[in-house]
Specification:
D-Maltodextrin-Binding Protein, domain 2, WH-like_DNA-bd_sf, alpha/beta, 12 strands, two-stranded antiparallel ribbon, Arc Repressor Mutant, subunit A, 3 domains, transcription regulation, 41% helix
């Protein structure tokens, strides 16, 4: 059954005349008659009875017309909802981001965007890196904000910024008076790490791999806040960005001078996904706010 057949059926049912319906639909009468006949054949019953020159719905036709009109209304609603979502001045952008970005970067970024485009709405997904990449690959999200480790040839990437990573220490640690430290000094030191569900874990893992450091990891946490809390309680040390939320913990922050430790964050989107007009507005905003040097 084709959607066009349903529209033709509704027109004939409303006008009760094949010739008048064909004229309204800009069809030949034989073409319209064939369409109605094919619909009746598929349903297994006749839908009309002749009354003089008119076609009158029988009980099967009346039943089908009721459902057909409801289906048409639902399709029109769906078309309108899609139009509303892609409207460049009041649509919806689907955005996924890492858990660790929810406290500072995302509120700041979206707040600035909404100052300019107050009527554009967001569908937000706070995700692990794996979840984020799945949402992007399945076209369930327009954009993702994450670290670059999983970016491949199927994705575009736009750098948003870099944050320095510091060695976080408990207040009574032997290194609290150091002005800087080298990563190789962590070789035997108790270390509080992150599970792979946190995007920062991949950046830190790559740093350790490049320097061939195997830290004495005593625990893998899900969240940065948990890591900071355990470090402040004396469980070990950790590499962390000095974000506002983490600075509330009683910690000493020491610079890492060798190698340089940075967390890169950027926006990814699928190369084969056709961006909606409202998505293009967000992309241009990102490019303007974070120009690539």
């Amino acid at each position: 059954m084709e959607w066009q057949q349903i529209e033709y059926f509704i027109a004939v049912a409303n006008l009760q005349h094949m010739t008048k319906a064909a004229k309204e639909l800009s069809l030949t009468q034989p073409a319209l008659s064939r369409s109605i006949a094919a619909l009746e054949k598929e349903l297994g019953v006749a839908l009309f009875e002749r009354s003089g020159r008119n076609l009158v719905l029988n009980r099967y036709g009346r039943l089908f017309l009721k459902r057909a009109k409801l289906a048409l209304m639902e399709m029109e609603k769906a078309k309108q909802e899609i139009a509303d979502q892609i409207n460049p001045y009041g649509g919806v952008i689907s955005l996924s981001f890492l858990h660790m970005l929810g406290a500072q970067l995302i509120p700041s970024l979206l707040g600035s965007f909404r100052d300019r485009y107050a009527d554009i709405r967001f569908e937000l997904h706070q995700s692990s890196n794996d979840e984020l990449m799945k949402l992007i690959s399945n076209n369930d999200c327009d954009f993702g904000i994450t670290t670059p480790e999983f970016v491949n040839d199927t994705l575009y990437w736009h750098l948003i910024g870099k944050s320095e990573l510091f060695l976080a220490l408990p207040l009574n640690h032997q290194w609290v008076n150091k002005s800087s430290i080298s990563l190789d000094e962590l070789q035997e030191e108790p270390y509080v790490g992150l599970k792979t569900s946190c995007g920062l874990s991949f950046t830190i893992h790559n740093l350790f791999e490049k320097t061939q450091i195997r830290p004495n990891t005593v625990f893998h946490a899900d969240e940065l806040d948990t890591v900071a809390g355990l470090v402040s309680a004396g469980f070990g040390v950790a590499l962390l960005p000095k974000t506002l939320g983490l600075q509330s913990h009683p910690l000493v922050w020491v610079n890492v001078d060798e190698p340089a430790c940075e967390l890169s964050v950027g926006m990814v989107w699928k190369k084969t996904k056709q961006l909606t007009p409202v998505s293009n507005i967000f992309l241009e905003f990102i490019r303007e706010r974070y120009p690539i040097e």
